Predict the 3D structure of the following.
Amino acid sequence: MVTRRFALLLALGLPAPVLLPQPWLALAAVFGFALLLALLDAAAAGPLTGIRLERAGERTVWLGGSATVTLTVANTSRRTVRLRLRDSWVPSAGAAPLYHRLTLTPKAAKTVATVLTPTRHGDRPAVRVTLRSSGPLGLAYRQRRQGWNEKLTPPWTLRVLPRFPSRRILPEKLARLRVVDGSAVTRGRGHGTEFDNLREYVIGDDVRSIDWRASARAHDVVVRTWRPERDRRVFCVLDTGRTSAVRIGDAPRLDACIDAALLLSVLATRADDRVDLLALDAAVRARVEGGGHRSKLGRLINGMASLHPELAETDFTLLGQEMLRRDRKRALLVIFTALDTAPMIAGLLPILPKLATRHKVIVAGVRDPIVTRLAELPADASATDVHQAAAAHRVLAERDRVRDVLAHSGATVVDADAGDFAARVADVYLLLKASGRL
């Protein structure tokens, strides 16, 4: 194939033969000479059959960060190869730079780096490598696309983990968890339900905690201390249906739910509770259960990384079937969904009373701050502002009614803006842990 330099050379040589007595014959001679040069240049280009590619680099990255993947290009032939290489990834991988220029002498190898800044979580695969070998004159080239079905290049996929902005408040929540668990002693420590140890009575202790038998043996006043029960079950349910695709700020509602589920999973794992995950809409999209406490956290994060909103109505009967097939041990069931009227009435409400009789249920929904702002009527309001405020008030009123119905059915409702959503869910978990209701 010819390059732009060949076209430029041909364009510069065409005007001269027009002034000669036989212009068509001269034009044919110029064109033939240029084509001959291009053929000779293409023949002199280094062969691509001797190029070997090998990848290395990072396999995972958090959304918002960058990862570097390297590509080692080796020339196994006996001729010098002048390469223009394009390393193609899916658009959401944010790969840069797109092109690399290399000159490889015989038996030489060079490494090029591609920096990936993904814009979406999930798996971001490399697509193909395109190799172009140019001749010494730069008039023609040989080209070959190497797909991943060939053995020359191994496949490579970057796993982009979901954004975790609530990680900044994790130390504060862990400190509260240590207070609840008794690792850090503070005044006003909450009572758990599992016996911890005995200690001497101090002013301010609840007299109902005095152990009279132990006090008689020790000839001193001794009180019992309690800690929250461990090895409880926490079941996170992520709604990936159509309502999870609504944009809250610059991200889907599902991203805020994943962030809250990650924070809750870390807290529950540190409290030695068992965390399971179920993501569903019209079908079950992800299920993580079983395994050790520490190893499961990585599996939970990987399971959430592949989740995306689906344009389908959520079938909450799948949740009922999932909970019924499990044993009857009580668990904390946290359902991350949208507090919209239609999905709640037709989907969750019919099965909620049955779930609430067997488990402690939390229904958590992210509130859209734009609706709250539209409900506030400015001083210089126009007719359009009045209509928008009326519509926003109606949406908020329906949301309040849904929240009341859910609470009446036995669920604890968390309704907060995206910035406070994860913290509110974690606070409810810590409150249940401290009061022994988990």
Confidence is low (pLDDT under 50) at residues 183-191.
